[in-house]
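Q: Here's a chain of 177 amino acids. Please give me its 3D structure as tokens.
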Amino acid sequence: MTDHNIDNFMKLVTNHKGPTDKESRSDQYYRKQYQKIMAGRVVNWNWAAFAGNTVWMLYRKMYMNAIVLPLCAIMYYLVLLLFIPSKEVFKAYEHLFVGAYILLFLCPFVLSGLFSNWLYVRHIHKKIDKGYHHGELENIDGMSSLLSVFIPFLGVISAAIIAFNDKRKVKRSLLGK
């Protein structure tokens, strides 16, 4: 018996609101997308996933997809660079190479925009299969938990930059420059 239904899906997608809370626009969007995907429509456009594909996947806690997508894009670029012929051939067919670069640059964004909702539904179904929908889930906003990880990291980087910059200033003043 499968627990893949709209209620279990929405329980995991809605940031764990109470049953009396009003559905947000995001909740309504994912409810509609879930219904489309369950009806067999795999391709659905998602502007947020198109504009910030890796960040969107991190926000939705799809960590493996967020790692694989940029790695695939890097591999595409490397393959294209490896197959660039001599300068004379490149100059003769420059427009084709530029077009290929643009196509390869846009490819991960377009694929992310087209298939991210389907990937997200699959991701939530895996959580349902593991039983996440049965437990009491705490009310944690995805972005605040993401920021709680990155803000200390950014603080350490900023402190290192300031310390390095101050060290250079002290050396310069000691040398009389």
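Q: Can you summarize the key feature?
A: The chain has a mean pLDDT of 75.
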